[in-house]
Task: inverse folding
C-alpha cells in the first residue's frame, strides 16, 4: 500500500483563535512586575531548552525508537461523532531514516485482517474493523539490508489493542546496522524499576508544572478549576499549530516555546478578566464557579476537538528518537531535556515566589486573602498574575507532555484528575506542595506498573488522592486550618 | 443514522421530530432518573456528588454480572445492582462526608473514574468483559413487555413497542421517585436535610446528627442513580465502561440545573428540555451542513456535529450558571450553591 494518504488534518482545522481570547480585554494584562516575572520564566526556559535541545537532533540520528509506551487509551466518547475509522499505523524508522518496503500483517484470531507495506516515509497503515485485540506482525524477511529490529525477537505483538474508532500507532523500533548500534543487555529487575521511577519523575515533573497553577488559583480565589486540564491541552495544541500543522508557520518547537508560554498566559489572563473576575464581582460563590468551570471545560474541550480533530498526533520534531543510556537509565534524549526543563522552571517558580515582591504577595494572598488585602496588597493584580502565570506554566507543561507523548484534544482532561491528586496530596493552595505532590503521584503511578497491569496506573493516582483526603486532608505541606 | 440531506430544503419537521423522539425517549428518562438522585443529593442536601456515574456503573454491572456470571434471575440481579449502589454510597459517604463540599466533589469523581478504569481493565476482563463489556443479559426484561408489537405515535414521532416499554418503565420510575422525594422532603427528615444544606452548624447545634442525614441522602440518591444505570443497560442490552464517563454526571447536572434544582419536577423537565435541545440542535446542524444554511456548511463538516453540540452543552452550563442558576422552575432562595 505505497502512497497511503497520511493522516493529516485539513488546514482549515488549524485556524486557531478561541473566541474567549479575542473577546477579552487583554490590555489589563500589562502589569509590569507581572510581565517581568512571566518573561523571566519564559526566557530562562527557552534558553535552557535551546542549549539542551541542541543535542536533540544528534541524539535522534542514533539508533531507533523503543518507546514501547503507547498513548494512554483515549476514553473516546461513543457519541463524540468522530467518523475516523479504526486502523493500526506506524512509522518504521531507524532514527530519522525511514525503513521502506517492510510488510506488516494484522490478524485477529488467526484470520488475516489486512496487510500493508511501509512507504517511502516508513509509514504503513492497516484498516481494522473496530476496537478489539489484534496480532500485529512484521515480516522479518522483508526488512531491507542495513536495518534490523532493535529487539530482533519482537516481530509479533500478539495482543495489540485498538480502542475506539481511532487510528492507533504501533511501534516497531529499528536500528541501522551499519551504525555502531549499542547493544543493550536485558535489564535486571532493579534496572527496570529504576527506569520506571525515572519515567515517573518525568511525568511527575510535568504534573507538578501543571499543578502549581491549579493550586495557586485555588489558594488565591477558592476556585476548584475543572477547566484547568484545558489550559494544559491549549499549550500542546498551540505548539502543534506552530510546529507541525500544515497550515501553520512550522517554526519548530524551540521557536514555538516562548509563544506557547505567552499564549497560555494570555488565555489565563483573558479568562480571569473576562470570566472569573466579573463572576466574583457578582458575588457568585465558589461552588457555582466550580460548575461554571465544568461548563468551560466541556466547551473548550469539544471546541479543541472541532478545530484539531479527534486523533492523537506527534510533533514533527523529536517524536522518533533513540534512547540514550546514562548509567542504567535508558530514555530518549527528549525526555532528559523535558525533565531538565521542568526542573529548571520549577526552581525558577520557587525563586520568584521567594524573592520577588510579586511572589511574596502571591503567597500572602494564598495564605490569608483578607489579611493580605488589608495590609495593602492589590489582590486583584495578584489573582491576575496567578491566572496568567499558572496558565502559562500549564501551557508549557502541556507542550512538554506533547513532546514526550502525543498531542490529543482531551490530553489535559485525561490528566486533570491526576493533577488534582498532586494538588490535594501537596495541600490545596500550596505551590511547593503541588510540585512535591506531582512527583509523588508521577513516580507512584509509573512504578506501580512494575506489579500491576498498566491500565491501573491512573487508578493508583486517584486511589492515593482519596487516601490522602481521608488520612491527612490538609495534604503533605498544607496548613491544618484549610480543612473544613 | 439515516442518510441526511436527501431533500432539497431544510426539513424543519424532521428536526422537530428528532428532538421529540430523543427528548421523550429512554435516554431522557435515564438522565431524568439520574437527576432525581442528584436533586436529592445536591438540590436538597447540598452534597456535590460528581461521581453519580459511579453509582450507575456499580448497579448496571452488578445486575449484568449477576445474570452473566451467576445465572441469577433478573429481579434478583436488580437487587444485587441496587445493593451495590448502597454499598458504594456507604463506602464513599462514611469517610468523605466529614470533608468540605469541594473535597467531596473531587473524591466522588475520582472514585467513579477508578470504578470505570477497573471495569475496563484487562485484569477484570473475566468478570466485566473489559472494554468489550457484557451483552444480552436482559432478555427476560423484554419478555415481560405487555405492549403488543407495532409502532405507536403520531406521524414521524413514533416508537416501537420495545422502546415504548423501556420508556414507560423509565418515566414510571421517574414519576414514582419524584413523588417519593416530594413526600420525603415534606417529612421531618426532609426538613432536617434542608436545614443541613442551609446551615450545617445550626442543624448540629439543634442536636441533629447531620452526618447521618447526609449519608442517607447520598446513599438514597445513589440508589436512584443506580436504578437509572440499570435502566440504561437494560435498554442497550449491553453494558460497557464507556457508558459511565464523568460526562454523564455533568450532563445530568446540566439537566437538573436547567429544570431547577431543589424542585420536584426539575429533573424530569430539565432532562426533557436538555435532550430536546441537544437532539434538535444536532439534527439542525446536520441539515444546516447538508444545505449550507447560513454558510454553516463551509465552516463545519458532518464529523464536527458531535463535538459542536457538546461544546454548546458546555456553553449552556456556563450561561445558565451565570444568568439563571435556579433554572426554569426554581426560586433563587431554594438554590443552595454557596456556603
Result:
Amino acid at each position: 500500500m505505497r502512497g497511503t494518504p497520511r493522516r493529516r488534518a485539513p488546514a482549515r482545522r488549524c485556524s486557531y483563535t478561541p473566541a474567549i481570547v479575542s473577546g477579552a480585554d487583554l490590555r489589563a494584562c500589562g502589569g509590569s512586575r507581572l510581565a517581568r516575572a512571566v518573561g523571566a520564566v519564559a526566557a530562562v526556559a527557552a534558553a535552557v531548552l535551546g542549549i539542551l535541545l541542541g543535542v536533540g537532533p544528534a541524539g535522534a540520528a542514533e539508533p531507533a525508537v523503543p518507546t514501547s509506551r503507547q498513548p494512554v487509551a483515549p476514553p473516546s466518547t461513543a457519541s463524540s461523532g468522530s467518523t475516523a475509522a479504526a486502523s493500526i499505523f506506524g512509522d518504521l524508522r531507524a532514527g530519522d531514516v525511514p525503513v521502506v518496503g517492510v510488510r506488516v500483517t494484522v490478524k485477529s484470531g488467526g484470520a488475516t485482517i489486512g496487510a500493508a507495506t511501509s512507504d517511502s516515509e516508513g509509514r504503513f497503515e492497516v484498516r481494522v474493523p473496530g476496537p478489539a485485540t489484534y496480532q500485529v506482525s512484521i515480516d522479518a524477511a522483508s526488512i531491507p539490508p542495513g536495518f534490523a529490529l532493535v529487539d530482533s525477537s519482537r516481530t509479533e505483538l500478539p495482543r495489540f489493542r485498538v480502542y475506539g474508532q481511532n487510528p492507533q500507532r504501533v511501534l516497531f523500533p529499528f536500528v541501522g546496522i551499519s551504525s555502531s548500534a549499542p547493544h543493550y543487555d536485558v535489564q535486571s529487575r532493579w534496572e527496570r524499576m529504576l527506569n520506571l521511577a525515572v519515567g515517573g519523575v518525568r511525568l511527575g515533573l510535568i504534573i507538578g508544572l501543571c499543578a502549581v497553577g491549579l493550586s495557586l488559583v485555588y489558594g488565591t480565589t477558592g476556585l476548584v478549576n475543572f477547566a484547568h486540564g484545558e489550559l494544559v491541552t491549549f499549550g500542546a495544541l498551540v505548539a502543534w499549530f506552530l510546529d507541525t500543522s500544515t497550515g501553520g508557520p512550522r517554526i519548530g518547537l524551540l521557536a514555538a516555546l516562548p509563544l506557547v508560554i505567552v499564549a497560555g498566559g494570555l488565555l489565563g489572563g483573558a479568562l480571569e478578566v473576562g470570566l472569573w473576575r466579573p463572576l466574583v464581582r457578582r458575588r457568585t460563590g465558589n461552588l457555582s464557579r466550580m460548575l461554571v468551570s465544568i461548563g468551560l471545560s466541556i466547551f473548550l474541550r469539544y471546541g479543541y476537538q472541532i478545530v484539531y480533530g479527534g486523533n492523537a498526533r506527534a510533533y514533527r520534531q523529536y517524536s522518533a528518537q533513540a534512547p540514550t543510556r546514562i548509567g542504567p537509565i535508558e530514555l530518549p534524549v527528549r525526555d532528559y531535556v523535558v525533565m531538565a526543563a521542568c526542573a529548571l522552571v520549577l526552581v525558577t517558580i520557587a525563586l520568584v515566589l521567594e524573592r520577588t515582591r510579586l511572589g511574596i504577595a502571591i503567597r500572602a494572598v494564598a495564605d490569608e486573602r483578607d489579611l493580605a488585602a488589608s495590609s495593602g496588597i492589590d489582590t486583584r493584580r495578584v489573582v491576575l498574575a496567578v491566572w496568567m502565570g499558572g496558565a502559562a506554566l500549564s501551557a508549557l507543561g502541556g507542550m512538554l507532555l506533547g513532546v514526550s507523548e502525543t498531542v490529543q484534544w482531551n490530553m489535559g482532561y485525561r490528566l486533570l484528575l491526576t493533577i488534582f491528586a498532586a494538588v490535594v496530596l501537596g495541600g490545596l493552595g500550596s505551590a511547593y506542595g503541588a510540585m512535591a505532590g506531582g512527583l509523588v503521584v508521577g513516580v507512584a503511578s509509573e512504578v506501580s506498573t512494575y506489579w500491576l497491569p498498566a491500565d491501573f496506573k491512573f487508578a493508583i493516582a486517584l486511589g492515593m488522592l482519596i487516601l490522602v483526603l481521608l488520612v491527612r486532608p490538609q495534604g503533605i505541606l498544607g496548613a491544618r486550618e484549610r480543612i473544613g | 443514522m439515516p442518510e441526511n440531506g436527501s431533500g432539497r430544503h431544510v426539513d424543519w419537521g424532521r428536526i422537530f421530530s428528532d428532538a421529540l423522539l430523543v427528548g421523550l425517549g429512554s435516554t431522557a428518562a435515564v438522565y431524568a432518573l439520574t437527576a432525581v438522585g442528584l436533586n436529592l443529593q445536591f438540590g436538597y442536601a447540598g452534597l456535590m456528588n460528581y461521581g453519580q456515574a459511579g453509582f450507575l456503573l456499580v448497579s448496571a454491572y452488578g445486575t449484568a454480572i449477576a445474570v452473566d456470571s451467576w445465572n441469577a434471575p433478573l429481579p434478583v440481579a436488580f437487587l444485587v445492582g441496587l445493593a451495590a449502589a448502597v454499598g458504594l454510597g456507604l463506602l464513599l459517604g462514611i469517610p468523605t462526608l466529614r470533608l468540605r463540599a469541594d473535597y467531596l466533589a473531587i473524591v466522588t469523581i475520582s472514585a467513579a473514574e477508578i470504578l470505570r478504569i477497573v471495569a475496563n481493565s484487562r485484569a477484570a476482563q473475566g468478570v466485566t468483559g473489559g472494554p468489550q463489556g457484557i451483552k444480552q443479559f436482559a432478555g427476560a426484561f423484554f419478555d415481560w413487555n405487555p405492549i403488543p408489537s407495532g409502532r405507536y405515535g403520531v406521524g414521524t414521532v413514533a416508537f416501537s413497542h420495545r422502546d415504548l416499554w423501556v420508556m414507560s418503565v423509565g418515566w414510571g420510575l421517574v414519576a414514582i421517585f419524584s413523588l417519593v422525594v416530594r413526600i420525603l422532603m415534606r417529612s421531618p427528615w426532609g426538613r432536617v436535610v434542608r436545614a443541613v444544606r442551609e446551615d450545617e452548624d445550626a442543624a448540629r447545634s439543634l442536636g441533629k446528627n447531620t452526618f447521618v442525614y447526609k449519608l442517607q441522602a447520598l446513599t438514597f440518591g445513589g440508589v436512584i442513580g443506580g436504578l437509572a444505570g440499570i435502566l440504561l443497560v437494560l435498554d442497550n442490552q449491553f453494558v460497557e465502561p464507556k457508558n459511565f464517563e464523568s460526562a454523564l454526571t455533568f450532563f445530568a447536572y446540566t439537566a437538573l440545573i436547567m429544570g431547577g434544582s431543589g424542585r420536584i419536577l426539575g429533573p424530569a423537565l430539565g432532562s426533557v428540555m436538555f435532550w430536546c435541545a441537544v437532539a434538535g440542535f444536532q439534527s439542525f446542524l446536520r441539515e444546516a451542513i447538508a444545505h449550507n444554511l447560513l454558510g454553516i456548511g463551509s465552516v463545519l463538516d458532518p464529523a464536527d456535529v458531535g463535538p459542536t453540540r457538546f461544546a454548546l452543552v458546555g456553553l449552556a452550563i456556563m450561561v445558565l450558571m451565570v444568568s439563571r442558576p435556579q433554572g426554569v422552575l426554581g426560586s433563587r432562595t431554594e438554590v443552595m450553591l454557596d456556603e
DSSP finds 14 helices and 13 strands in chain A. Residues 189-471 of chain A form a domain with the ABC transporter involved in vitamin B12 uptake, BtuC fold (CATH 1.10.3470). Confidence is low (pLDDT under 50) at residues 1-32, 51-83, 178-184 of chain A.
